[in-house]
Each structure stands twice: as structure tokens, then as C-alpha cells.
Amino acid sequence: MSSSTMKVLVESELCSIAKDFPAEIRLDTLCDRIYPLTGIEPSHMKLIAKDQQGNVLSTVDPSAQDNEYQVLNDTRISRIFVDDTSANPISDRLQPGDEDVGFKLSEEDYAQRENTLLAWKVRNQMGRFDPAYKEQLDRSRRLQQERLETLEIDQRCAVRSEGRPERRGWLRFVGVVPEISPTDIWCGVQFDEPVGKNDGSIKGTVYFGPVSAKYGGFVKPTSVETGPHYSPLELDGASSEDEV
């Protein structure tokens, strides 16, 4: 049986990003996963665990703690601030004014600077600058487009998402949902059972329906198949990151 996960907001002087971590993750593994997000070497990290109100629950110095230690052993933890304890922290290596450079420089001028977070990501091939990331993104988009060509609006459908049992309903919408992503295509599904996450609307914009609460959802095209043979069935719900 897989261990439970916790969604934790990882924060530093340069980033703030929510990630899912296994609740029983070891300290050394946690630091290794945080490093690509913050750029702070594990040997220079100090982890400050906080609850939703920002109250400090614990402070961990990885260099002085056993690697087997489990930082996320307190279910109240919702945020981890990563302090850079090195003599030359990455935030100091950025040029003055980089924190609000978007208000001062064009994208072209900013890209020419060497001591910026952007340049650091390029040098270390992180995020969108990782060749493997681009290959995965291109492959995902190709698969999404191939599946889109097989789908029919207002047809019965089956939805198969990772970590969830099969669900069925009607495909009611296919298109861009700016509230989720400015470019990605999503499929709006009216489920037979209350196993969705909304009523066919996102942040006040109605894309189909509206239907009853939790009878609507938006999923990736590769999760959907349409056809008259997908008759209703009973399902139990669970959560997925590929759905809104």
C-alpha cells in the first residue's frame, strides 16, 4: 500500500510552489526534491516547517540531522520555508533589482543578464530548459491531439485518470479553459455520478451546463474515450492532479 501524500507549499527567497510529497519521505530525499525548486544546495538548507497560519512548528538543519528523519511527521505542516545558509546565497547572486525586473526591463534585456535566476536555470537546464522536459511536453501534446481527433461532443464517454477508477458520463465541452491554462485543451465532462470537482464552470465562467455540484469536471483529452457503448456505472471518487 502506498503511503499517504501531503501537499506542501515550498517557499524560499526566490520561489513559492505547491508540491505533493509522501508523508513518510526521508529528510535526504525531501532535500533532493526541494533543490530543483529553490536552487539551494541540500548542505546549505535550513527547513522551517509552518502551519496554514504561518506559525513555526519545527526547524530542521539537514546537516545536523539523521537522513532517516521524517520532516513531514506533523499533519499540521502546510508550508516549508527553505533558508539558504551558505556564505553566498543564490538570492544575493542575482543583480540588484532582479526581484522586480519585470517592471524595468524588456524580456530581451533580462535574458541577456548573466547573474539572474533565469540564467541560472538555463545553465543548469532546469524546468523548461531541460531537454527531457521539452521532449516530454511535445510527446504529451502530440498524444493529446491524437486523442482529440477521436472524440465527439455530446456523446457518451469513459474517463480513465491515473489513480482513479473508471468514470462515465457525457462529453459536453472540448476547448481551451483560460482559467486553467491559456493554451492547453481540456474536455468538459458531465458525470453520471457526483464524482467530479465542479458544476461545469471554472471561476464563474460556465463551459457547459451548469450541472449539479460535483457532476462536472475538466480532464485531459488522453483520459477520455467516447462511444455509445459507455453506459452508466457506479463509481467511487478519488483525487487526481490531471483534473480540475
Explained architecture:
The protein is of the alpha+beta class. It has 3 domains: 5-93, Roll (Ubiquitin-like (UB roll)), CATH 3.10.20; 103-149, no CATH class; 151-226, SH3 type barrels. Helix content is 18%, strand content 26%. The chain is built from 4 helices and 12 strands. It has helices at 27-38, 107-112, 117-123, 131-148; strands at residues 5-11, 16-22, 45-50, 56-60, 79-84, 156-159, 167-176, 185-191, 201-202, 205-206, 216-219, 224-226. Strands 2-1-5-3-4 form a 5-stranded mixed beta sheet, covered by helices on one side. Strands 11-8-7-6-12 form a 5-stranded antiparallel beta sheet. Strands 9-10 form a two-stranded antiparallel sheet. A hairpin with a 4-residue loop joins strand 1 and strand 2 (16-22). The longest helix has 18 residues, at 131-148. The two termini are 26 Å apart.
